[in-house]
From TrEMBL:
It comes from the Bacteria. This is ATP-binding cassette domain-containing protein. Residues 2-227 form the ABC transporter domain. Transmembrane segments: none annotated. InterPro entries: AAA+_ATPase (IPR003593), ABC_transporter-like_ATP-bd (IPR003439), ABC_transporter-like_CS (IPR017871), P-loop_NTPase (IPR027417). Belongs to the ABC transporter superfamily. One of its GO terms (molecular function) is ATP binding. Keywords: ATP-binding, Nucleotide-binding, Transport.
Amino acid sequence: MISLKGLCKRYGDRTAVDDLSLEVRAGAVTGFLGPNGAGKSTTMRLVLGLDRPTAGTALIGGVPYHQLRNPLRTVGAMLDARALHPGRSGYAHLTALARSNGIARGRVAEVLERVGMAEGARRRAGALSLGMSQRLGIAAALLGDPAVLMFDEPVNGLDPEGVRWVRHLMRSLADEGRTVFVSSHLMSEMQLTADHLVVIGRGRLIMDAPLAEVIAGSALTAVAVRTPHADDLSARLSAAGVTVERLGENELVATGATIERVGDLAYEAGIRLHELRTREASLEQAYQELTAGSVEYATRGTGA
Ligand SMILES: Nc1ncnc2c1ncn2[C@@H]1O[C@H](COP(=O)(O)OP(=O)(O)OP(=O)(O)O)[C@@H](O)[C@H]1O
Protein backbone atom coordinates (compact mmCIF):
# COMPACT_ATOMS: atom_id res chain seq x y z
CA MET A 1 0.00 0.00 0.00
CA ILE A 2 1.13 3.55 -0.71
CA SER A 3 -0.06 6.28 1.70
CA LEU A 4 0.30 9.98 1.09
CA LYS A 5 -0.45 12.42 3.90
CA GLY A 6 -0.49 16.16 3.29
CA LEU A 7 2.18 15.68 0.64
CA CYS A 8 3.54 18.97 -0.74
CA LYS A 9 6.35 19.81 -3.11
CA ARG A 10 7.30 23.33 -4.09
CA TYR A 11 9.98 24.30 -6.57
CA GLY A 12 10.65 27.98 -5.83
CA ASP A 13 7.26 29.66 -6.09
CA ARG A 14 5.80 26.81 -8.14
CA THR A 15 3.70 24.25 -6.25
CA ALA A 16 3.98 20.90 -8.05
CA VAL A 17 2.18 18.80 -5.40
CA ASP A 18 -0.31 20.50 -3.11
CA ASP A 19 -1.47 18.82 0.10
CA LEU A 20 -2.10 15.40 -1.41
CA SER A 21 -3.59 12.76 0.92
CA LEU A 22 -4.65 9.35 -0.38
CA GLU A 23 -4.09 5.63 -0.18
CA VAL A 24 -3.28 3.36 -3.09
CA ARG A 25 -4.44 -0.09 -2.08
CA ALA A 26 -3.14 -3.56 -2.78
CA GLY A 27 -4.78 -6.00 -5.18
CA ALA A 28 -5.96 -3.35 -7.61
CA VAL A 29 -4.72 -1.31 -10.54
CA THR A 30 -4.96 2.37 -9.60
CA GLY A 31 -4.76 4.76 -12.53
CA PHE A 32 -3.08 8.08 -11.81
CA LEU A 33 -4.44 10.76 -14.12
CA GLY A 34 -4.10 14.48 -14.58
CA PRO A 35 -3.32 17.07 -17.25
CA ASN A 36 0.29 17.82 -18.20
CA GLY A 37 2.17 19.35 -15.31
CA ALA A 38 -0.45 18.20 -12.77
CA GLY A 39 2.27 16.72 -10.57
CA LYS A 40 2.03 12.97 -11.29
CA SER A 41 5.73 12.36 -11.93
CA THR A 42 6.70 14.53 -8.96
CA THR A 43 4.37 12.53 -6.70
CA MET A 44 5.94 9.27 -7.88
CA ARG A 45 9.43 10.67 -7.36
CA LEU A 46 8.50 11.69 -3.82
CA VAL A 47 7.20 8.17 -3.06
CA LEU A 48 10.50 6.74 -4.34
CA GLY A 49 12.61 9.11 -2.28
CA LEU A 50 14.07 10.68 -5.44
CA ASP A 51 12.97 14.07 -4.18
CA ARG A 52 12.22 15.40 -0.71
CA PRO A 53 8.74 16.66 0.12
CA THR A 54 8.40 20.27 1.22
CA ALA A 55 5.80 18.98 3.70
CA GLY A 56 3.86 15.81 4.45
CA THR A 57 4.77 12.16 4.06
CA ALA A 58 4.78 9.43 1.43
CA LEU A 59 4.89 5.92 2.87
CA ILE A 60 5.22 2.48 1.28
CA GLY A 61 3.73 -0.22 3.50
CA GLY A 62 3.87 2.32 6.35
CA VAL A 63 7.55 3.17 5.90
CA PRO A 64 9.24 6.08 4.09
CA TYR A 65 11.36 4.92 1.12
CA HIS A 66 14.70 5.91 2.66
CA GLN A 67 13.99 3.70 5.69
CA LEU A 68 13.17 0.57 3.67
CA ARG A 69 15.59 -2.26 4.42
CA ASN A 70 15.29 -3.84 0.98
CA PRO A 71 13.94 -1.10 -1.29
CA LEU A 72 13.93 -3.14 -4.51
CA ARG A 73 12.15 -6.02 -2.80
CA THR A 74 9.50 -3.67 -1.47
CA VAL A 75 8.78 -1.35 -4.37
CA GLY A 76 9.58 -1.57 -8.08
CA ALA A 77 9.20 1.36 -10.42
CA MET A 78 9.62 2.40 -14.00
CA LEU A 79 9.65 6.15 -14.35
CA ASP A 80 11.73 6.55 -17.50
CA ALA A 81 12.27 3.54 -19.76
CA ARG A 82 15.22 5.20 -21.50
CA ALA A 83 17.15 5.78 -18.26
CA LEU A 84 19.53 2.89 -18.93
CA HIS A 85 23.22 2.89 -19.80
CA PRO A 86 23.01 2.70 -23.64
CA GLY A 87 26.18 0.60 -24.01
CA ARG A 88 25.15 -2.09 -21.57
CA SER A 89 22.93 -5.02 -22.45
CA GLY A 90 19.62 -5.42 -20.67
CA TYR A 91 20.88 -8.65 -19.21
CA ALA A 92 24.04 -6.98 -17.81
CA HIS A 93 21.93 -4.15 -16.40
CA LEU A 94 19.58 -6.50 -14.56
CA THR A 95 22.42 -8.72 -13.34
CA ALA A 96 24.24 -5.72 -11.84
CA LEU A 97 21.00 -4.54 -10.25
CA ALA A 98 20.36 -7.99 -8.77
CA ARG A 99 23.91 -8.27 -7.43
CA SER A 100 23.89 -4.86 -5.72
CA ASN A 101 20.54 -5.63 -4.11
CA GLY A 102 21.23 -9.14 -2.88
CA ILE A 103 18.77 -10.67 -5.34
CA ALA A 104 19.51 -14.19 -6.67
CA ARG A 105 20.97 -14.13 -10.19
CA GLY A 106 18.42 -16.68 -11.39
CA ARG A 107 15.72 -14.06 -10.93
CA VAL A 108 17.07 -12.13 -13.95
CA ALA A 109 16.09 -14.89 -16.39
CA GLU A 110 12.70 -15.18 -14.66
CA VAL A 111 11.77 -11.52 -15.08
CA LEU A 112 13.10 -11.40 -18.65
CA GLU A 113 10.88 -14.36 -19.41
CA ARG A 114 7.88 -12.67 -17.80
CA VAL A 115 8.28 -9.55 -19.94
CA GLY A 116 8.83 -11.63 -23.09
CA MET A 117 12.45 -10.50 -23.55
CA ALA A 118 14.39 -13.71 -23.20
CA GLU A 119 15.95 -12.90 -26.63
CA GLY A 120 16.54 -9.14 -26.87
CA ALA A 121 18.16 -8.86 -23.45
CA ARG A 122 21.63 -9.57 -24.87
CA ARG A 123 21.49 -6.49 -27.10
CA ARG A 124 22.88 -3.08 -26.03
CA ALA A 125 20.16 -1.07 -24.30
CA GLY A 126 20.85 1.80 -26.72
CA ALA A 127 19.93 -0.44 -29.67
CA LEU A 128 16.54 -1.44 -28.27
CA SER A 129 13.25 -0.14 -29.64
CA LEU A 130 11.12 1.96 -27.28
CA GLY A 131 8.82 -1.02 -26.75
CA MET A 132 11.73 -3.25 -25.79
CA SER A 133 13.13 -0.56 -23.45
CA GLN A 134 9.72 -0.38 -21.77
CA ARG A 135 9.74 -4.15 -21.27
CA LEU A 136 13.25 -4.00 -19.86
CA GLY A 137 12.26 -1.17 -17.50
CA ILE A 138 9.31 -3.25 -16.33
CA ALA A 139 11.61 -6.28 -15.85
CA ALA A 140 13.86 -4.14 -13.63
CA ALA A 141 10.83 -3.07 -11.60
CA LEU A 142 9.80 -6.72 -11.11
CA LEU A 143 13.30 -7.94 -10.23
CA GLY A 144 12.91 -7.84 -6.44
CA ASP A 145 9.40 -9.40 -6.61
CA PRO A 146 8.02 -6.31 -4.83
CA ALA A 147 4.50 -5.95 -3.44
CA VAL A 148 4.26 -2.37 -4.69
CA LEU A 149 4.74 -1.30 -8.31
CA MET A 150 4.69 2.13 -9.89
CA PHE A 151 4.78 2.85 -13.60
CA ASP A 152 4.91 6.31 -15.15
CA GLU A 153 3.32 6.22 -18.62
CA PRO A 154 4.24 2.59 -19.31
CA VAL A 155 2.39 2.43 -22.64
CA ASN A 156 3.84 5.62 -24.13
CA GLY A 157 4.99 4.90 -27.65
CA LEU A 158 3.94 1.25 -27.67
CA ASP A 159 2.16 -0.41 -30.57
CA PRO A 160 -1.32 -1.89 -29.95
CA GLU A 161 0.12 -5.31 -29.17
CA GLY A 162 2.51 -3.78 -26.62
CA VAL A 163 -0.32 -1.76 -25.07
CA ARG A 164 -2.42 -4.92 -24.68
CA TRP A 165 0.52 -6.74 -23.18
CA VAL A 166 1.05 -4.00 -20.55
CA ARG A 167 -2.68 -4.10 -19.75
CA HIS A 168 -2.61 -7.84 -19.09
CA LEU A 169 0.57 -7.56 -17.06
CA MET A 170 -0.92 -4.83 -14.81
CA ARG A 171 -4.02 -6.95 -14.31
CA SER A 172 -2.05 -10.08 -13.38
CA LEU A 173 0.21 -8.12 -11.00
CA ALA A 174 -2.87 -6.76 -9.22
CA ASP A 175 -4.48 -10.20 -9.18
CA GLU A 176 -1.38 -11.47 -7.40
CA GLY A 177 -2.29 -9.03 -4.62
CA ARG A 178 0.23 -6.31 -5.46
CA THR A 179 -0.31 -2.57 -5.36
CA VAL A 180 -0.15 -1.26 -8.93
CA PHE A 181 -0.02 2.52 -9.36
CA VAL A 182 0.16 3.62 -12.98
CA SER A 183 0.00 7.00 -14.68
CA SER A 184 -1.24 7.38 -18.23
CA HIS A 185 -2.57 9.88 -20.73
CA LEU A 186 -4.46 7.22 -22.65
CA MET A 187 -7.96 7.32 -21.21
CA SER A 188 -9.37 4.56 -23.38
CA GLU A 189 -6.58 2.32 -22.13
CA MET A 190 -7.09 3.31 -18.49
CA GLN A 191 -10.79 2.54 -18.83
CA LEU A 192 -9.82 -1.03 -19.73
CA THR A 193 -7.02 -1.37 -17.17
CA ALA A 194 -7.81 0.47 -13.95
CA ASP A 195 -10.06 -0.57 -11.07
CA HIS A 196 -9.60 2.68 -9.22
CA LEU A 197 -8.69 6.21 -10.28
CA VAL A 198 -6.81 9.04 -8.68
CA VAL A 199 -7.15 12.29 -10.63
CA ILE A 200 -5.09 15.35 -9.79
CA GLY A 201 -4.94 18.84 -11.25
CA ARG A 202 -2.45 21.57 -10.36
CA GLY A 203 -1.01 19.26 -7.71
CA ARG A 204 -4.35 18.89 -5.90
CA LEU A 205 -6.61 15.87 -5.55
CA ILE A 206 -9.66 16.11 -7.82
CA MET A 207 -11.01 12.56 -7.54
CA ASP A 208 -10.16 9.34 -5.71
CA ALA A 209 -12.82 6.75 -6.56
CA PRO A 210 -13.51 3.43 -8.27
CA LEU A 211 -13.54 3.65 -12.07
CA ALA A 212 -17.22 2.63 -12.18
CA GLU A 213 -18.11 5.52 -9.85
CA VAL A 214 -16.23 8.06 -11.97
CA ILE A 215 -18.07 6.89 -15.10
CA ALA A 216 -21.46 6.80 -13.35
CA GLY A 217 -20.86 10.32 -12.03
CA SER A 218 -20.38 11.79 -15.49
CA ALA A 219 -23.14 14.08 -16.71
CA LEU A 220 -22.91 12.16 -19.98
CA THR A 221 -23.83 8.83 -18.43
CA ALA A 222 -27.50 8.34 -19.30
CA VAL A 223 -30.35 5.86 -19.44
CA ALA A 224 -31.39 4.67 -22.89
CA VAL A 225 -34.98 3.50 -23.37
CA ARG A 226 -36.84 1.86 -26.25
CA THR A 227 -40.61 1.88 -26.00
CA PRO A 228 -43.60 1.97 -28.38
CA HIS A 229 -44.96 4.84 -26.22
CA ALA A 230 -42.01 7.23 -26.43
CA ASP A 231 -44.21 10.37 -26.43
CA ASP A 232 -46.01 9.36 -23.25
CA LEU A 233 -42.84 8.34 -21.47
CA SER A 234 -41.04 11.48 -22.58
CA ALA A 235 -43.81 13.64 -21.10
CA ARG A 236 -43.87 11.60 -17.91
CA LEU A 237 -40.11 11.82 -17.40
CA SER A 238 -40.00 15.55 -18.17
CA ALA A 239 -42.76 16.17 -15.64
CA ALA A 240 -40.62 14.34 -13.05
CA GLY A 241 -37.68 16.65 -13.74
CA VAL A 242 -35.69 14.20 -15.88
CA THR A 243 -33.96 15.58 -18.99
CA VAL A 244 -35.08 13.71 -22.08
CA GLU A 245 -33.63 13.57 -25.55
CA ARG A 246 -35.56 11.82 -28.34
CA LEU A 247 -33.39 9.71 -30.61
CA GLY A 248 -35.94 8.06 -32.86
CA GLU A 249 -39.60 7.21 -33.01
CA ASN A 250 -39.27 4.59 -30.29
CA GLU A 251 -36.10 5.65 -28.55
CA LEU A 252 -35.11 8.24 -25.98
CA VAL A 253 -32.22 8.99 -23.67
CA ALA A 254 -32.76 10.26 -20.12
CA THR A 255 -30.16 12.10 -18.05
CA GLY A 256 -30.32 13.14 -14.42
CA ALA A 257 -32.01 9.96 -13.17
CA THR A 258 -30.92 6.44 -12.31
CA ILE A 259 -32.00 3.47 -14.38
CA GLU A 260 -34.20 2.36 -11.45
CA ARG A 261 -36.00 5.70 -11.37
CA VAL A 262 -36.66 5.71 -15.11
CA GLY A 263 -37.95 2.13 -14.88
CA ASP A 264 -40.18 2.97 -11.92
CA LEU A 265 -41.64 6.06 -13.61
CA ALA A 266 -42.48 4.00 -16.68
CA TYR A 267 -44.05 1.28 -14.54
CA GLU A 268 -46.14 3.77 -12.55
CA ALA A 269 -47.49 5.20 -15.83
CA GLY A 270 -48.18 1.71 -17.18
CA ILE A 271 -45.82 2.23 -20.09
CA ARG A 272 -44.40 -0.86 -21.73
CA LEU A 273 -40.61 -0.89 -22.27
CA HIS A 274 -38.78 -2.94 -24.88
CA GLU A 275 -35.33 -1.95 -23.67
CA LEU A 276 -33.88 -0.18 -20.65
CA ARG A 277 -30.14 0.18 -20.27
CA THR A 278 -27.42 2.47 -18.97
CA ARG A 279 -25.44 4.27 -21.66
CA GLU A 280 -22.11 4.92 -20.02
CA ALA A 281 -19.92 7.93 -20.68
CA SER A 282 -16.38 7.09 -21.71
CA LEU A 283 -13.61 7.72 -19.21
CA GLU A 284 -12.32 10.32 -21.68
CA GLN A 285 -15.61 12.25 -21.32
CA ALA A 286 -15.72 11.89 -17.53
CA TYR A 287 -12.08 12.94 -17.30
CA GLN A 288 -12.68 16.04 -19.46
CA GLU A 289 -15.47 17.13 -17.11
CA LEU A 290 -13.36 16.54 -14.02
CA THR A 291 -10.27 18.34 -15.20
CA ALA A 292 -11.83 21.13 -17.24
CA GLY A 293 -11.03 23.66 -14.50
CA SER A 294 -7.40 22.74 -14.11
CA VAL A 295 -6.71 22.59 -17.83
CA GLU A 296 -8.27 26.01 -18.41
CA TYR A 297 -6.19 27.43 -15.61
CA ALA A 298 -3.02 25.92 -17.03
CA THR A 299 -3.77 27.39 -20.47
CA ARG A 300 -4.40 30.86 -19.07
CA GLY A 301 -1.33 30.54 -16.86
CA THR A 302 0.96 29.77 -19.78
CA GLY A 303 -0.46 32.54 -21.91
CA ALA A 304 -0.08 35.22 -19.21
N1 LIG B 1 12.85 19.75 -10.83
C1 LIG B 1 11.91 20.66 -11.04
N2 LIG B 1 12.14 21.98 -10.91
C2 LIG B 1 11.19 22.90 -11.10
N3 LIG B 1 9.91 22.61 -11.43
C3 LIG B 1 9.59 21.33 -11.58
C4 LIG B 1 10.55 20.28 -11.39
N4 LIG B 1 9.91 19.10 -11.59
C5 LIG B 1 8.63 19.39 -11.91
N5 LIG B 1 8.44 20.72 -11.90
C6 LIG B 1 7.15 21.42 -12.14
O1 LIG B 1 6.19 20.82 -11.33
C7 LIG B 1 4.94 20.69 -12.00
C8 LIG B 1 4.50 19.23 -12.01
O2 LIG B 1 5.31 18.48 -12.89
P1 LIG B 1 5.19 16.92 -13.10
O3 LIG B 1 6.24 16.53 -14.09
O4 LIG B 1 5.17 16.24 -11.81
O5 LIG B 1 3.75 16.79 -13.77
P2 LIG B 1 3.10 15.57 -14.52
O6 LIG B 1 1.71 15.49 -14.04
O7 LIG B 1 3.96 14.37 -14.38
O8 LIG B 1 3.12 16.07 -16.02
P3 LIG B 1 3.25 15.24 -17.39
O9 LIG B 1 1.94 14.57 -17.57
O10 LIG B 1 3.47 16.34 -18.38
O11 LIG B 1 4.41 14.32 -17.23
C9 LIG B 1 5.15 21.27 -13.38
O12 LIG B 1 4.70 22.61 -13.35
C10 LIG B 1 6.64 21.20 -13.58
O13 LIG B 1 7.08 22.23 -14.43
